[in-house]
Structure formats: structure tokens, C-alpha cells
Amino acid sequence: MHTSLAAHRLAAIGMLVAAISTTLGACSAQQPTRATFDSIGAQALGTGLAPGFSMAIVHDGAVVYTRGFGLADMQQQTAVTPQTRFAIGSVSKQLAAVSVLWLAEHGKLSLGNRLSRYLPRMPSARRITVRELLNQTSGLHNFPRTTEHDWPTQGTIAPSALFAILQTDTPDFAPGTRWEYSNTNYATLAFIVSKVSGMPYTGFLQRHIFEPLHMSASGAGFAAQSGTATPYSGAAPFTKQHAVSLDLFYGAGGIVSTAPDLARWDVALMHRTLLDARSMHDLWTAGQLANGTRVNYAMGFVPATLEGHREVWHNGLAPGAGGYCFNAIFPDDGLAVIVLSNGANFTGVPERMTRQVLEAFFPSARAAQRAFTPAAGEDTVITTRAREWLHRLQTGDVDRSQLTPQANTAFTPAVLAQAKQQFSALGAPTAFQYAGKTVNGAYSQYRYRVTVASGAQQWLFTLDAHGKIAGLRLVPWPSS
After folding, report:
1. How far is 154 from 165, CA to CA, in rounded Å?
2. Distance in angstroms (rounded) separating the CA atoms of residues 67 and 342
3. Is 240 helix (H, G, I), strand (E, B) or coil?
4. Lowest-confidence segment of 22-26, 180-184, 256-260, 301-305 by average pLDDT
5. Which of 222, 218, 219 is nearest to 247 (CA)?
6. How far apart are alpha carbons 262 and 275 in whole angstroms?
7. Do residues 275 and 101 make contact, with C-beta atoms less than 8 angstroms apart?
8. What is the radius of gyration, based on Cα positions, of the chain?
9. CB atoms within 10 A of CB 224
10. Helix 93-105 crosses helix 183-197 at what angle (to 10 degrees)?
């Protein structure tokens, strides 16, 4: 599921990597040719980072392009087509969020309800709200980390088997005090949907989302997993991933779909087919902590900007079940780009494709980026160190002596391996600019605007009172 934000990857230390986006609805769009999109897809396949992928583009309420590239199965030499089904990983979180908001609209629950109403034995259940689950500010510990528990990974897995383990975990922080990506939030939301609706989560999706939107190729969990594109890791010639049941990921990343089906999903969101204006605002607006501080996450979407255009996106990777996937919507432009792959190392490529599609529709987009003025008071020694650590994550060369004990624990070998894959795909920064500093007790967080091929990102570099590294995060550069 990506778990992407993936199930057990960079989320473990609160890292998000992806494209970014702003608002420039005043720009007039041109109509690119199919050959332009074919070229974008061919370049992506030429990176050799995935055996195959499917791509769909929406503009002005219509699906204007769909095509498959490469192979869905290398042994059988099966070509990817628009009808190829992929495990979409954490892109699934969008559907869990919409399901909860739909129930709220129909008076079945409130976003202020406490988790104890539905899962009283979960950690901090009396303090966590449904909204905090949606915004990833609950403090619930991320899953599934195989080094911590013996998770079931094969065949049909009952949600009760997952929660029997999840309720034993210790929270990472008090609800509402921090943001941290955790698949547990969205697994919990799927359970809430099931309990409130009186039907299995997969049944709710089928009745209220897949059938009304004619997403006939979509499904969820192990029952829908057969016939999906074979997942691979590494670069060409690729290695087949060890099979894992999608039931393990539940609401956090268990959905199977096609690029055209997700195009229908994006159209429905932009046209408010499923939710009213208020719910759509919640879905796409950054959440906030108890003290009012905004976080870089909405509800199953990351709100951002790309070359002056407002964007909401989410990526996904279900290890053992699928490859890296990406869904980006530009609400003010009626534009959406969907890329679903069977390559775990395809990270960063769909983001570049999305940028290329945006520039094909809006050639002036790049010139419309706002100039950035670095903040005053920069400590060049710390800036050098912050830049060094971005490079360390790209190369996997981590000096543990510089980390706090907590950060050392978070940087497991698996996390570092995933970090190297994801960060190396960004390439070398073309700009690294100081954006300010925030002091919170014994911790100082230094912010930098980092420009890479996929756009501007915000690098958050946190030190404790002894100069040890307590946090590293890469998030989209915030919209204005």
C-alpha cells in the first residue's frame, strides 16, 4: 500500500517524497497531441525502473488518454494495457477517507467522534478522534513492520487478526500533538466504515463507490488480488517480489484498480459526485494539530502546488503485491494524471510524468513559479550538514553517531533501503535555500527549499539540544 507512503517505509520516520503543486486557474490550457503523451510514457519506460505501467489523463471531465507501456508479467510476456489491474497501495487511502466523509454526510458518524466508540481497546482510543485518524495526527504506531510482529501475510486475513496485534502497540505520541504517517490510521478507518455501515469494508466500497462510478475492474483485498500485474523490485532485469496478501493492508492499501477506473474516480471527486462541497474541502485541505499548526496532509491526499497550480496527490506501494503508483489531481484545472506500475523502484518517475503532462497543457507553467527569497539568519554550518544528510539518504551512507537514540531506532535497515530508493530518484538538487528555523523546547527545526527535477520540496532538518539529529523529513513545498 505504500504502505506510501508505503506500508513500512519512509513513513516510519515521517518522510514523504513526491511531486508538488499551487493555484493558477487563470492560465489557459492548450490541447496536447496523443503523440506528446506517448513520448512521456516512452521516456518513463526507458528509465528501466519498472517492467510496465498504465497511464491515464483526465481533462475537463473527460478521459483524454489511456495507454499501457511495457509488461505486466515478464515470464509470460504479457503486455500492460489500460485494462491491466494493479495493486494501488496507499492510493487506497483516498477511498477510505471518502467513505468516512460519506458516512458523516449521511449522519452515521461525526469526525469528532472518539475511537473508543468503535475500537475501545486501541491505544489512546478515548482521546483520538476520527478527524485525527484522517489527518494522520492520532499517534497510532505504523504497521506492518515485520521486525516487530509476526504479521499474517498469506490468503484471507480477517481484520480482527490485524487489530488483535495493533491494539498491543504503544502510541508514538499524544493525539493531536504531531503528524506522522501511519497505515494504522487508515486500517482503523476502514474498520469504522465497516462497523458503522453494518457491512464488510469491501462490500461498502462495492456498493457506494465502485458500482455507482462504474469502476468495474476495481476491488479490494485478497479476493480481488488474482490477475493483477506481477510485482517486481530492483531495476532491469528485475526481481519478482515475494507474494503478500492485500488483506494485510486493509483500508491503508488493499485496493486493486486500473488507470481508467481511477480516472473515473478523479472525475467524480472533481465533479462532487460522491461528496458535497464542505466534505470535499475537508478531503483536500491540510489538517492541523491541536495547537492550530497546519500539517502537510489532508485526508488521503497531500495538498501541494506544482508550477503555480494547486495539486492534491497520493502515492502508493504495496510491498509484495504491487509496484509504485501515483494519482495527482489539479482541481482548478480539471486535470488529473494516474500512473500505476508493477515496479517497486519506479519512485519519482510518475512525479516527473505528471510535471510533463502539466507543462504540455500549460506551457507557461514553469515560468509562473514564484521566486523564492531565502530567510535571514542562516547558519551555513548547519545548512552544509542538512544538505549532507539529504545526500546520505540518497546514497544510504548514514552516520549513526549523529542521530538521537530514537532516530537510530527508526532508521532500520529496511527503512534505509526504502529511503535510498525514494531519495535517489529525486536526483541532485539544483538549489538548496534556507527557509527559516523553529524552536520547540530542546529541539530546533531548520527548513530548506530544495529544488529537484520533480519540483520544489521542503527539507526539514531537526536537531536536539546536543546537536544530534532528531528528525528528517521531505515534504511538498507548501502552497502560498
Report:
1. 16
2. 15
3. strand
4. 22-26
5. 222
6. 16
7. yes
8. 21
9. 21
10. 40
What is the phi/psi pair of residue 338, to 5°? -120, 130
Average pLDDT, the chain: 89
Gap between the Cα atoms of 258 and 335, Å rounded: 18
Strands (E), 342-442: 431-440
Cα separation, 173 vs 410, in Å, equals 14
Q: What is the pLDDT of residue 118?
A: 98
CA angle 310, 456, 258 (to 5 degrees): 55
**Does the N-terminal peptide bond of residue 144 adopt cis geometry, omega within 30 degrees of 0?**
yes
User: CA–CA separation, 2 vs 312, rounded Å?
Assistant: 17
Asked if 79 contacts 52 with a C-beta cutoff of 8 angstroms, the reply is yes
Buried b (16+ CB within 10 A) or exposed e, 405-429: eebeebbbeebbebbbbbbbbbeeb
Instruction: State the Cα torsion 52-301-96-210 to the nearest 10°.
Output: -50
- Average of pLDDT values for 86-92? 97
- For residues 389 and 401, the answer to whether their CB atoms sit within 8 Å is no
C-alpha cell at 354: 505528471
Specify the DSSP class assigned to residue 403.
B
Classify 470 in phi/psi space as left (phi over 0), alpha (psi -120 to 50) or beta.
alpha
Is the confidence at residue 295, as pLDDT, over 70? yes
Phi, psi of 62 (to 5 degrees): -120, 145
HEC per residue, 133-158? HHHCCCCCCCCCCCCCCCCCCCCCCC
Residue 395 has pLDDT above 50, yes or no: yes
Residue 235: band (very low, low, confident or very high) from pLDDT cuts 50, 70, 90: confident
Lowest mean pLDDT among 90-94, 144-148, 216-220, 251-255: 144-148
* Residue 425 to residue 423: CA distance in whole angstroms: 5
Report whether pLDDT(172) > 70: yes
Q: What is the DSSP letter of 114?
A: B
User: How many CB atoms are closer than 10 A to CB 92?
Assistant: 32
> Are 458 and 448 in contact, with CB atoms under 8 Å apart?
yes
Distances (CA, A) of 276 to 167, 264, 279, 284: 34, 17, 5, 12
Neighbours of 139 (CB within 10 A): 24
Q: Please give the average per-residue pLDDT across 82-91, as a whole number.
A: 98
Which residue from 7, 1, 23, 11 is spatially nearest to 419, judged by alpha carbons? 11
237-251, pLDDT tens digit by residue?
999 999 999 999 999
447 beta partners: 436, 460
